[in-house]
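Quick one: examine this chain and its backbone structure tokens and tell me how the chain folds. Here goes:
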Amino acid sequence: MNNGKRPKLKIPLSLEEKILILIGTLSIIAMLLYLCIMWGEIPDIIPTHFGLSGDPDRFGNKNSLFALPIIAIIMHILFVVLSKMSYYFNYPVSVTEESAEALYKIGKQLILLLDMEIALMFLILMWENIQAAIGSISGLGVEIVGISMFIIFGTVIYETIRMNKIKN
């Protein structure tokens, strides 16, 4: 069924979804607090990019550290707003009157899980970036990116499998 004929259901947020939004929000707040607390210790020139090995390969002004929380805030807002419009999502199965509510709930949960996971990943990246800037570590832990990608793709695969199990 195409998007124009799909039912536009208003599905209220569940407690679990509210918790996912809260965790994402708290991650961003923690990122900003940590940046403010550490600001005086951060040198004026910091690593701004890290190669595949995790070693810094570009340097810049410490003000560039604000990019991560700004991107995280924008993404968080977009994901939360997008989660309210699950009838526009692409689904791996046909959306019918009977399956719409179940599919929309899974779609909304998927978006909010990804939002939380990305916010947590940004928090970890902020912490590692500041630690590298003040010299406590030599670079970013490359395993963090791999683990984050595994979790994000795992979430998408898991929720897609759940969608495929919905009977039309």
